[in-house]
């Protein structure tokens, strides 16, 4: 045998069913067929996570291309049309096809375990909700797919020009009218259909979460003992329930305007501002749909490596609910520059500033949790602490943007891009990474490479501060966003930003390698208490479940 | 994994070629994605044709490229395996092996690609090659005969 490789005990633990374990499914086929037919919440959770990883890599490639374009002040390597398509598909992919599915996947896998439920309330709907997503995403990206086919055929000597008709959409993720109604590219219609479909998928999953949390809790899990992650998933699902149907309707109206001559958003009809109202009434809650699960994960993981219970649990729950309610009352802060009545603007400013309070409650509770704690700087903890730090920058810059006079200056500059990336990368993506490391042993039965994980964490933190910190500065200097070209004097700042972005990307590749390689040959987990949680009395339900699974497996191997 | 031990085992060359098929499939897919995603700026098929020394014949260049990926590199890989660093895991060794291949590729295939596109070209072809090497090694490791003795 060579140096202990491959490991002698090649038995995956914990993550997989042996059959006969849920009420809904008794026998499981093996191989590919198992995945296609599975209605087990753990399988579906894994599929969501794999899908989200794939889309994140694709959307990440878009981001790297954006940053490459901006290395030089002139247009190139890509033309401005392609540039517009890049930030459009980047934004749509990251928000709707990466973050949303990633948290849905984590929720699918862990909520039933945390609630002591056998499965989700509607396992089949759960499977359907997942399987809607890949075709939805392909519709959004259809132009590239037909192009691949065309290219492949061209290599063999066939050229079919109609396959090149679908151009990547260049509408921006906000799809503002009248631009979006007027662009002729047929791909935009497919994109709208795909987005509509993805909204249906998200909605189905949210309903499932709500019903599961209400009806499937085991007897010893009451509302007062419900864990923090389930609370945030419940709130998020509530937001989805109200926000996504609205997006769906607005998308249909846009589709009708484009294809059937309706006048919902035309200048002499409903007007382009109507689109902005409808879009942002969905769009602002959407950003909290993305960030609340991340808050939940930080609140869940941070205490484990602080050696203390989460400080002010109740207040964290209340602040989550408060954010949920308030998030529907701030949408017009995205429209301060559109010339709406100043009195209306002022009231939106007030509510927007008010929403900072529950967010601040959370950060202070996190810091208090760490206070005088016994801190262990594992990779998940590094991501949590880094995430809190970057979230503070993202949050404070957000308060500035909520102030009308400042927003009038900074609107549509890189300041905005910097602000929201401190949140979408700085805490949302960081929390997802923290969870991926924290639960890795439970999901795979093996341990990841801790050194590589820490390198990843540091690359991400440093890269984020460089890339998006400089965006704040560039924006404050007046550089507008969404242009493929820019004045010469911004060149060196832009190049430094790109270096920061490449650092983040390098970290992601290390993460991917670590995940795959550790799954193959990482050290097998023998003791379920990987993080020494028993000693601080935080060996929570999902880990207890994992311990039982390991024990079961051992009995099997011993032949009992 | 029960089926791990029971899986059909092959001799070393055929498992390497199986690895080569899987690796080349992934490499080609990633290269096509790269070509399309970058809106044909990189001209990856031309780069491949230059790499195999046929700058003007994309089709034959591509055929040679596949042949090398499926047969030549995998067989070279198992011949060199004991000397490649980062063992004993063949997948980790495959990454080192593919890195060397990539060096040759990025130099021979570069053509007239200039700054700053060269970053995208180099970075994404690097990732594609590493994925090739990793897949080659991983598939090879899980199929070759010795594993029966190792795990049983
Ligand atoms: C290394 C990681 C990332 C980098 C370097 C990056 C870079 C950028 C840049 C430069 C823009 C502005 C494009 C422009 O306005 O011209 C942008 C837009 C955007 N990004 Fe990212 N991004 C990253 C990750 C993410 C993630 C993880 C998310 C969401 C979860 C995200 C969501 C968005 C959205 C929604 C937009 C707005 C798109 C638009 O302007 O229509 N980004 N990104
Ligand atoms: Cu908002």
From TrEMBL, chain B:
Pfam families from the xrefs? DUF6789 (PF20587)
Membrane-crossing segments per the record = 16-36, 57-79, 91-108, 120-143
Tell whether Transport is among the UniProt keywords. no
Q: Which InterPro entries match?
A: DUF6789
Entry keyword annotation includes Phosphoprotein: no
Q: Keywords in UniProt for this one?
A: Membrane, Transmembrane, Transmembrane helix
The protein depicted here goes by the name DUF6789 family protein
From which lineage does this chain's organism come? Archaea, Methanobacteriati, Methanobacteriota, Stenosarchaea group, Halobacteria
């Amino acid at each position: 045998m060579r140096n202990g490789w491959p490991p002698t005990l090649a038995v995956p633990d914990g993550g997989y069913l042996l059959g006969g374990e849920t009420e809904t499914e008794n026998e499981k086929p093996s191989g590919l067929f198992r995945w296609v037919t599975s209605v087990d919440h753990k399988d579906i959770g894994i599929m969501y996570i794999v899908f989200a990883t794939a889309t994140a890599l694709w959307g990440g490639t878009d981001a790297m291309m954006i940053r490459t374009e901006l290395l030089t002040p002139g247009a190139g390597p890509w033309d401005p049309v392609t540039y517009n398509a890049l930030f459009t598909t980047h934004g749509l992919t990251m928000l709707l096809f990466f973050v949303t599915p990633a948290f849905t996947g984590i929720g699918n896998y862990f909520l039933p375990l945390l609630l002591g439920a056998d499965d989700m309330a509607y396992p089949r709907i759960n499977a359907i909700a997942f399987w809607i997503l890949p075709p939805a995403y392909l519709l959004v990206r259809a132009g590239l797919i037909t192009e691949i086919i065309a290219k492949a055929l061209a290599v063999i000597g066939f050229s079919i020009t109609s396959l090149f008709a679908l151009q990547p959409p260049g509408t921006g993720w906000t799809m503002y009218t009248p631009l979006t109604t007027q662009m002729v590219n047929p791909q935009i219609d497919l994109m709208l259909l795909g987005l509509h479909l993805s909204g249906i998928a998200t909605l189905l999953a949210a309903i499932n979460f709500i019903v599961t949390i209400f009806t499937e809790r085991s007897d010893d899990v009451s509302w007062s003992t419900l864990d923090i992650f389930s609370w945030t998933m419940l709130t998020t699902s509530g937001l989805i329930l109200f926000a996504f149907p609205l997006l769906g309707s607005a998308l249909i109206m846009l589709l009708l305007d484009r294809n059937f001559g309706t006048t919902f958003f035309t200048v002499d009809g409903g007007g382009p501002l109507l689109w902005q109202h409808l879009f942002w009434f969905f769009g602002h809650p959407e950003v909290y749909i993305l960030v609340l699960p991340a808050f939940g994960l930080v609140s869940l993981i941070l205490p484990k490596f602080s050696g203390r219970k989460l400080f002010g649990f109740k207040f964290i729950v209340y602040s989550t609910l408060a954010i949920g309610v308030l998030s529907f009352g701030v949408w017009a802060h995205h429209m301060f520059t559109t010339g709406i009545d100043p009195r209306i603007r002022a009231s939106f400013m007030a509510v927007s500033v008010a929403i900072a309070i529950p967010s601040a409650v959370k950060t202070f509770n996190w810091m208090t949790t760490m206070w005088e704690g016994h801190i262990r700087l594992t990779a998940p903890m590094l991501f949590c602490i880094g995430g809190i730090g970057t979230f503070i920058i993202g949050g404070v810059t957000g308060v500035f943007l909520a102030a009308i006079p400042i927003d009038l200056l900074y609107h549509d500059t890189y300041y905005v891009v910097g602000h929201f990336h401190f949140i979408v990368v700085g805490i949302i993506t960081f929390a997802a990474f923290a969870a991926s490391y924290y639960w890795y042993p439970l999901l795979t039965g093996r341990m990841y490479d801790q050194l590589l994980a820490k390198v990843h964490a540091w690359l991400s933190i440093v890269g984020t501060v460089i890339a998006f910190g400089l965006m704040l500065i560039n924006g404050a200097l007046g550089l507008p966003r969404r242009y493929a070209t820019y004045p010469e004097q911004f060149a060196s700042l832009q190049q430094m930003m790109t270096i920061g972005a490449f650092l983040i990307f390098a970290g992601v590749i290390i993460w991917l390698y670590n995940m795959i390689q550790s799954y193959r040959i990482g050290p097998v987990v023998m003791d379920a208490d990987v993080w020494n949680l028993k000693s601080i009395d935080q060996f929570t339900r999902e880990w207890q479940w994992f311990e039982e699974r390991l024990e079961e497996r051992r009995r099997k191997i011993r032949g009992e | 994994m029960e089926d791990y031990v029971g899986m059909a085992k092959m001799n070393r060359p055929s498992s390497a070629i199986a690895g080569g098929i899987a690796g080349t499939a992934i490499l080609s897919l990633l290269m096509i994605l790269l070509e399309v995603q970058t809106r044909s700026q990189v001209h990856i098929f031309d780069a491949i044709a230059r790499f195999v020394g046929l700058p003007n014949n994309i089709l034959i260049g591509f055929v040679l490229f596949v042949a090398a990926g499926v047969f030549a590199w995998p067989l070279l890989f198992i011949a060199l395996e004991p000397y490649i660093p980062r063992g004993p895991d063949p997948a980790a060794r495959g990454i080192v092996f593919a890195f060397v291949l990539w060096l040759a590729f990025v130099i021979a295939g570069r053509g007239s690609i200039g700054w700053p596109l060269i970053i995208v070209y180099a970075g994404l072809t690097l990732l594609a090659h590493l994925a090739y090497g990793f897949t080659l090694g991983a598939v090879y490791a899980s199929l070759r005969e010795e594993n029966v003795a190792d795990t049983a």
